[in-house]
């Protein structure tokens, strides 16, 4: 077993266990901390796939900015574990069964799909994930979506201020 | 790495997010599960971009085929950041009005 495979299995197990802990923790703050670990594991996968720009952006934007925003909101609301009323356990079982069925169906579709049977994702090599190549593509072919996304950010900012304003 | 490993990992992460949305009642946890689903899709997009790049690099080592997948991930992150910003302010406003983040309170939006 090579180092890459060991890292792949370790990061996958870390992501899955932490994602499950996000679901089953009662305290919202613990859920957020587990979700940050999931994001770190996914960033590790990006590094393994040699998508270094996305790995760093994932860490800065998701694990850094978005999760801190979540943490702020949770702490502002002073939610604790018993403030969440428990859902009927019948609904919990039904939700879990529905999600499990979705997973089984999708995995079964993948098992029979011919296109992906012998395909491999390049790990450790390849240079499309480097900032130079991504920047070339972003500012040549995708410059209009890039500018539009800045308008989206501006409108989201204005929207958040308008919604959050005390009236 | 075989691409099927990445597909199965993404499917399982996505379904954990779906189960979270279906079973939890705290609006913030539901929102976090949506983020989890977005990240599962992002991981799959990056894996597929490397898959197509690997096929093209066998012919031309300087090929940049598949770079679109990674740019899509970048744009998904941009949209997710905007979405979180608006969504969290809506949750804060709901909490200010109802003193709860339970989504079942929202089934009577009419009154």
Notable traits:
heterodimer, A: 167 residues, mainly alpha, Four Helix Bundle (Hemerythrin (Met), subunit A), 2 domains, 6 helices, globular, B: Helix Hairpins, 77% helix
Describe the overall structure.
The complex is a heterodimer of chains A (167) and B (111). Chain A has 167 residues and is mainly alpha-helical. Chain A folds into two domains: 3-129, Four Helix Bundle (Hemerythrin (Met), subunit A) (Up-down Bundle), CATH 1.20.120.1200; 130-167. In chain A, 75% of the residues lie in helices and 0% in strands. Chain A has six helices and no strands. In chain A, helix 1 packs antiparallel against helix 2 (28-48) and helix 2 (28-48) runs antiparallel to helix 3. The N and C termini of chain A lie far apart (62 Å). Chain B has helices spanning 3-23, 27-59, 67-98. Chain B has a single domain (3-103), classed as Helix Hairpins (Orthogonal Bundle). Chain B has 111 residues and is an all-alpha fold. In chain B, helix 1 (3-23) packs antiparallel against helix 2 (27-59) and helix 2 runs antiparallel to helix 3. Chain B is elongated. Chain B has three helices and no strands. Classes of the chains: A mainly alpha (167), B mainly alpha (111). The interface between A and B is large, with 81 and 74 residues.
Class inferred from helices and paired strands of chain A? mainly alpha
> What is the percent of helical residues of chain A?
over 70%
The CATH superfamily of the largest domain in chain A is NADH-ubiquinone/plastoquinone oxidoreductase chain 6, subunit NuoJ
CATH class of chain B: Mainly Alpha
Outline the biggest β-sheet of chain B: none
> The CATH topology of chain B is what?
Helix Hairpins
Shape category of chain B: elongated
> Please, how many domains of chain A?
2
Radius of gyration of chain A: 20 Å
Portion of residues in beta strands of chain A equals under 5%
> What portion of residues of chain B is helical?
over 70%
- Broad structural category of chain B: mainly alpha
**How much of the polypeptide of chain B forms β-strand, as a percent range?**
under 5%
User: Judging from the principal axes of the Cα atoms, what is the shape of chain A?
Assistant: globular
What is the arithmetic mean of pLDDT of chain B?
A: 88
Summed over residues and divided by their number, the pLDDT of chain A gives a mean of 88
- What's the domain count of chain B? 1
Question: pLDDT under 50 segments of chain B (min length 5)?
Answer: none
> Regarding quaternary structure, how should these chains be classified?
heterodimer
Head-to-tail CA distance between termini of chain B: 54 Å
């Amino acid at each position: 077993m090579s180092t890459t495979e060991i890292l792949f299995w370790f990061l996958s197990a870390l992501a899955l266990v932490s994602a499950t802990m996000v679901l089953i923790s009662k305290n919202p703050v613990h859920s957020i901390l587990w979700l940050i670990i999931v994001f770190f594991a996914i960033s590790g996968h990006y590094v393994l796939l040699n998508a270094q720009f996305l790995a760093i952006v994932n860490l800065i934007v998701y694990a850094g900015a978005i999760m801190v925003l979540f943490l702020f909101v949770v702490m502002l609301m002073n939610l604790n574990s018993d403030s969440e009323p428990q859902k009927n356990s019948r609904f919990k079982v039904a939700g879990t069964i529905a999600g499990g069925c979705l997973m089984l169906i999708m995995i079964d579709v993948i098992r029979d799909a011919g296109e992906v049977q012998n395909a491999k994702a390049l790990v450790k090599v390849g240079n499309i994930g480097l900032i130079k190549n991504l920047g070339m593509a972003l500012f040549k072919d995708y410059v209009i979506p890039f500018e539009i996304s800045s308008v989206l950010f501006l409108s989201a900012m204005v929207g958040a201020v308008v919604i959050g304003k005390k009236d | 790495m075989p691409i099927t490993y990445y597909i199965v990992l993404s499917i399982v992460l996505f379904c954990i997010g779906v189960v979270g949305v279906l079973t939890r009642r705290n609006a913030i946890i539901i929102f976090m599960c949506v983020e989890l689903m977005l990240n599962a899709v992002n991981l799959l997009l990056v894996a597929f971009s490397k898959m197509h790049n690997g096929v093209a690099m066998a012919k031309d080592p300087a090929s940049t085929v598949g770079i679109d997948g990674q740019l899509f991930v970048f744009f998904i992150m941009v949209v997710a950041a905007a979405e979180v910003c608006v969504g969290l302010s809506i949750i804060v406003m709901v909490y200010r009005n109802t003193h709860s983040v339970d989504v079942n309170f929202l089934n009577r939006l009419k009154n």
